[in-house]
Write a structure and sequence with these properties.
mainly alpha, 3 domains, 3-stranded antiparallel β-sheet
Length: 523
């Protein structure tokens, strides 16, 4: 019995119904996430706690949370998990992520398909290893290069929409950051996420990085030129200090190698009488790098010519990449590789990706069969196949009855009566029939009978022996079923039956394989 079940049983004995217990766990999960806002914990005044004093007291009595006073301010009290509460909260979050995994991936894919580089920027550059994010910020000042993009209202909407979606799943908390030292008001609304969510977001699509290096440099140049404007428009700073401060900030922003690009921008503004000409830092002349003549025009020119074109480019909708896979098959090794002809059309999925996907699916299916066989053999020895024989499936003997159906019901109505001829037989018996068909057709039969299994058979086998064997690997039946169906419906059938395929299907299929492999090697 795990710690969650123990707590449920303990609370049931105390007379709490399942709804009340669920609310207690929900509050604990909320505190587990929200305490990432700062080291001491989440502010007690959070509106989420207003109507749940009973649940809070229950969590305290179980020593799952503690109430502390933040030392800088006597008026500021917070909640945080205890060591035991942290363990329970982590389990609750991981369980929630497993249950909501497909929804998270679908949301990420939706953003990625529309704006791939903006998605990469938000997930890798902006969120990265951070867990707290301001809901609303004063973007009058640029605190780093990322604010160049976050200043755009459209990117703000995409960001907030993602956090609101995660909040609706119970995987994001919205809470205040601090208390005013004057009036005691709670201020600074932030979105907070759990650390367990980061990897899911970063592996949800094909994107494996943030903004391109070139676009990062563009943002950094704009950030740098705006950040040094107070120096180069000042009348109170001497030339030596100007040059020194300019160099320091150029170095901090990693733009020393980009001085020539900055020079071009400044000299273009000098021709418009917005600045003086640029003086290189290695020049022997003791001059400022440049001086700003008109600060307002300087700011307008920079915004119009640096971030605005970049952001417009990022919002250009990408062409939909989809392709109908044509039948052109050539077997080249023991796994079997499908060579697809005429696939490299404009906006089509590259042929190399299709071949890789076919190989990946084929290899994984072999791994899955071996995984099932190995575990059953360890449990039941040489009689493992007889254990599978106990699994019954419904099927129809198509070739034997198709002709009779047509004779009896006519050419137009025969297919409506298929269900009348469906019967239940052993799964292994069906495999044996397929092997006999190979022999009749002069095809060399498979050495292993399980090689004749349908892909849907694997799930039935795993679920049949769930308690005795496979629960230890996969933990979550719903998640397992979901990932196998994604692999089969989106990837395997599309590749094997020459159906339409796009990037979303390719990468969602690859993620399903990745998840299944990780669980198969987890015990």
């Amino acid at each position: 019995m795990n710690i969650i079940n123990e707590l449920q049983e303990h609370l049931n004995k105390k007379g709490l119904d399942n709804f009340k217990i669920h609310k207690c766990f929900e509050i604990l999960r909320y505190i587990y996430i929200g305490q990432n806002i700062r080291d001491p914990g989440i502010l007690q005044n959070d509106k989420h706690f207003t109507n749940f004093s009973d649940e809070i007291n229950i969590l305290k009595s179980l020593k799952l949370i503690e109430q502390i006073r933040w030392k800088p301010f006597k008026i500021c009290e917070l909640y945080r998990t205890t060591e035991k509460g942290f363990k329970v909260g982590k389990i609750l979050i991981e369980e929630k992520i497993r249950k909501k995994h497909n929804k998270i991936v679908n949301k990420c894919v939706e953003i990625y398909n529309s704006y791939p580089e903006i998605f990469g920027f938000l997930i890798f550059d902006y969120m990265g290893e951070n867990l707290t994010f301001p809901k609303k910020r004063d973007y009058e000042y640029l605190f780093d290069w990322k604010d160049v993009l976050l200043n755009d209202i459209r990117i703000q909407r995409i960001k907030n929409d993602l956090f609101e979606f995660l909040k609706s799943l119970g995987l994001c908390v919205e809470t205040e950051y601090y208390v005013s030292t004057r009036g005691g008001e709670y201020r600074g609304m932030y979105y907070v996420i759990p650390s367990e969510l980061t990897n899911v977001l970063q592996t949800s699509t094909a994107r494996r990085g943030g903004l391109s290096e070139e676009n990062k440099i563009i943002c950094k140049i704009y950030y740098f030129l705006r950040n040094i404007e107070h120096i180069l428009s000042s009348e109170n700073m001497n030339v030596k200090d100007m040059r020194k401060e300019y160099w320091n900030q150029l170095e901090e922003t990693n733009l020393i190698d980009e001085e020539n690009r900055i020079k071009e921008i400044i000299n273009e503004m000098s021709r418009k009488n917005i600045t003086t000409e640029y003086t290189e830092l290695l020049s022997p002349e003791e001059k400022p790098p440049f001086l700003i003549k008109n600060l307002t025009q300087y700011q307008i020119y920079l915004k119009k010519n640096i971030p605005t074109p970049l952001i417009e480019q990022l919002f250009k909708a990408p062409k939909k990449k989809s392709v109908i896979i044509r039948e052109s098959i050539k077997i080249t090794d023991s796994v079997g590789v499908k060579k697809y002809e005429a696939l490299e059309k404009k906006y089509g999925v590259p042929r190399s990706e299709l071949v890789d996907l076919f190989i990946e699916i084929s290899k994984f299916e072999i791994e899955l069969r071996e995984f099932i066989k190995r575990n059953l053999k360890e449990k039941y020895g040489d009689s493992w196949l007889e254990e599978i024989r106990k699994i019954k499936i419904r099927t129809n003997f198509w070739n034997e009855i198709k002709r009779k159906l047509k004779e009896r019901f006519g050419e137009e109505r025969w297919f409506k009566n298929i269900e009348k001829f469906r019967i239940t037989i052993s799964m292994v018996e069906m495999w044996e029939q397929r092997k006999e068909d190979d022999i009749k057709n002069a095809v060399k039969p498979e050495r292993e009978l399980i090689n004749y299994a349908d892909f849907s058979d694997y799930l039935q086998i795993i679920l049949k022996f769930w308690n005795n064997i496979f629960n230890g690997y996969f933990k979550d039946k719903e998640m397992l079923s979901s990932q196998l169906r994604i692999l089969n419906n989106l990837g395997r059938r599309s590749v094997m039956h020459a159906r339409s395929l796009d990037e979303e299907k390719v990468y969602t299929t690859k993620y399903a394989i990745k998840w299944l492999r990780s669980r198969m090697g987890s015990k």
